[in-house]
Amino acid sequence: MASVSPVPVASTAAVPEWLNKGDNAWQMLSATLVGLQGFPGLALFYAGAVTRKWALSSAFMPLYAMAAAMPCWTLWAHNMAFGRRLLPFVGRPGPALAQDYMLSQALLPSTLHLRSNGEVETAAMAPLYPSASMVLFQWAFAGVTVGLVAGAVLGRMGVKAWMAFVPLWTTLSYTVGAYSIWGGGFLFHWGVMDYSGGYVVHLAAGVSGYTAAYWVGPRRKEEEMAGGNLLLMVAGAGILWMGWTGFNGGDPFSANTDSSVAVLNTHICATTSILAWICCDVVVRGRPSVVGAVQGMITGLVCITPAAGLVQGWAALLMGVASGTLPWYTMNAAAAMINKVDDTLGILHTHAVSGVLGGVLTGVFAHPTLCNMFLPVTGSRGLIYGVSAGGVQVLKQVAAALFVAGWNVAATSIILVVIRALVPLRMTEEELLAGDIAVHGEEAYNVSGGTNSTLSHDTEVGNS
C-alpha cells in the first residue's frame, strides 16, 4: 500500500505565538466599518443633503479624502501621530508600510504583566496583532476626520483647493491632536481622556470645518435653504450609525470586555439622543423632523465617542439626553448668535459642540474600573467617583478641548491662506451657477433624458 504524504502544516511564522487571531480579526473588521463611514457613508449623506446640482461634487470630497489620506498616512503621518516623539505634541514623520510586521515593543514591557495577573484581558497599550492592522485602522480614522471637514464647505469650495487641503490638514492638524492625546504626547501624559475621538476627530473636524467655511465664504443665497434627496441622506446616515460600532468598538485595540461595553454604550446614547431631538422638535415645532432625527443620531454618536468604554450604561443614557438637547439648542434657538458663517451641514454643532459636551461629561461620569480596563492610569475617574480627582479631571478635559480647538483654528487658517496664494479657495461664478456639470463634467441625475457628457465622450472614443 502506497504511503500517504502528510498534509503540509502552515509555517508557524505566519501565525506567531504573540498574535491573537480574535483581536486581529476584530481590528480589521473595525477598520473596515470605519472606512465605510467615510465612503460610501459620508458620500451618500452629503449627496443627499445638498441640492441636485452639487450631489456629485459633495460625494467626491469624502471619496478623495479617503484616497488622499492613505499615502500621507503610510508615508509619514502615522508616525507623526503614533511614532517616536519629536515634540510634546507631534511624533517624528516616517514610513509605516508594514515592513515590520509586529507592533513596536516600546510600550509592551510595562503592560505585559497586567495580562498575566488577570487584571486586564488585553491592554490597549499592548495590542497583539501586526502593525499593518493598526495602520489600517488609524488611516480610516484620519480619512473620515478630514472628510467631516468637507461638510461645512459643500457647494462652493474649489476642487483643486480641496485636493491640496486634504494632505496638508491631515499632516499639520490631525496628527497633532492624535499624538497629543493618543500617541504619547503631553495631553496623554497629563491624563486627558478621549476614548475614541470626541476631541481628536469631532472637535477638530467641527472647528476646522467652521474655520474653512469662514475662509471659503458662503453659498449662493438661493441654495442655503434648498434640500436634496433626503432618502439618500438617511441611507448614508445609516451607514455612519452602524459603522460607529467599529469606530468606538475598535478602540480598545482588542475584542475584550471594554470593547463590548463601548459598542453597547454607543447605541444607547445614539438612540436616546434621537428621541431627545425628536421631542425637542415636537415641543417647539409641533412635528418631528426626519432631518432632525438624523442630526440627533449624529450628536449622540459624537457625544459618546470620548466616553464609550469609560462610562456605565446609565451614564450613556444621560449623555444621550444631553446630546439631543444642547446641540439642538445651539443649532436652532441660538443659531442667530453664532451662525454668521455658512456652515453647510452645521458640523460646528453636530461635531464640535457635541464633542466638547462628550469630553466634559467623560470627566464627570468616567468609571475607575472601566478606565483601568482600557488604559491603566492611576487615579483616572469621573467627578461623581471622587470630587477632588474628578474635578481635576474635568478641568483637564476643558483645557484639552481649548488646545484642540485653538490649534485647529490656527492650523486650518494658515493652510487655507497658503492654498489661496496658489489656487482659488472658492469656485468661480460659472461653476457656482452650473454645479457638478461645470466642476466634473458629470451630473448625478440624468433627469433630462439626454446622455451624460462624460459618458457620451467615452462612448464616442470607444466607437471610433
Topology, element by element:
Blueprint: H1 21-49, H2 55-82, E1 85-87, E2 90-91, H3 109-116, H4 131-149, H5 159-181, H6 186-190, H7 198-216, H8 230-249, H9 257-285, H10 290-304, H11 313-323, H12 326-331, H13 335-338, H14 347-365, H15 368-374, H16 387-422, H17 429-434, H18 436-439, H19 453-463
Antiparallel strand pairs: 1-2
Question: Please, could you describe this protein's structure?
Answer:
Helices cover 64% and strands 1% of the residues. It is mainly alpha-helical. It has a single domain (27-94, 127-435), classed as Ammonium transporter fold, CATH 1.10.3430. The chain has a two-stranded antiparallel ribbon with strand order 1-2. A hairpin with a 2-residue loop joins strand 1 and strand 2 (90-91). Helix 4 packs across helix 5. The longest helix is centred in the last third of the chain and has 36 residues, at 387-422. Residues 1-12, 104-123 and 453-464 have low confidence and may be disordered.
Q: Terminal Cα separation, in Å? A: 66 Å
Helix count, DSSP H or I runs of 4 or more residues? 19
Order of helices and strands: HHEEHHHHHHHHHHHHHHHHH
- Sheet having the most strands: 2 strands, antiparallel
CATH architecture: Orthogonal Bundle
Summed up, the domain count is 1
Classify the secondary structure makeup into a structural class. mainly alpha
Strand content: under 5%
Q: Which descriptor suits the 3D outline?
A: globular
User: What is the alpha-carbon Rg in Å?
Assistant: 23 Å
So, the CATH homologous superfamily?
Ammonium transporter AmtB like domains
